[in-house]
Specification:
The chain is α+β, with helices and mostly antiparallel strands. The protein has 9 helices and 15 strands.
Amino acid sequence: MGRTTALQAPPALPDLRIVPVADLLLHEQHDVQRIEPLTRRLQTDGVLKNPPIVAAINGDRRFVVLDGANRVTAFAQMNLPHIAVQVVDYDDADLVLGSWHHLVAGMGRSGFVDRLERLPGLIVKPTGLLHARAQLARREALAFIVYPGQDICTIRVDGSLHERAARLNDMVDVYRSEGRIFRVNTDHLDDLLPHYDDVTALVVFACHEPAEIVDLARIGARLPAGITRHVIPRRALRIDLPIALLGESKSLAEKNASLDDWMKHKVVRKQVRFYQESTFVFDD
């Protein structure tokens, strides 16, 4: 008997739209050091390579930006009225909200500790790794810090979500200007030490919930840059959409019609590829 092969239908195309920049709400700070070079690159290349990822807010015409705060900020500073985005469903079971952690390097430990302990509203307590993880999982701690040698302390804060977000910004400001920050997704400092020089500390953050992200964005409160980590299914990359289209004086409806035609052209010419497998990319 011959073997039959089940054919799977290709996934639906990403929901790409052109929307007003003013309708996009950030939930995290943009990276000040990256805005100027990003703006220059956008102006030089003349294309938007990767659209920001946004989610609709129930009962609101606006969107919360899940990924792409720097691109949205650059478009605003370039005085462009519209930007192309990929709209995703925040309730999608395949969309994962996690957290990045900050590996801090190039800053003296004594200065780091002294500035941290002098911040108002923060309760810093030495502890062990398992207890720190448990407190973070229960959201009793805002973060915990691992130093080389495995000295560990928890950071606790009392107050509302918005007050906790403000204290997070204060904490990241301790090392944002003086140290170098690397985003990592593990709390095992010993695994990271062979790959980085002059490590000061590993700052491990708690995960937030989607409702908290929307709440922060609605009121204009923001988390520090590089903390939330959204894993987006069926993400659109390298669309290379001409920025000139976004800056034209046409109506939003006309621009979206042009975007639809552009996407149909890409599909017809077989220029859209979907990669289901996990991939390492070394040329980014």
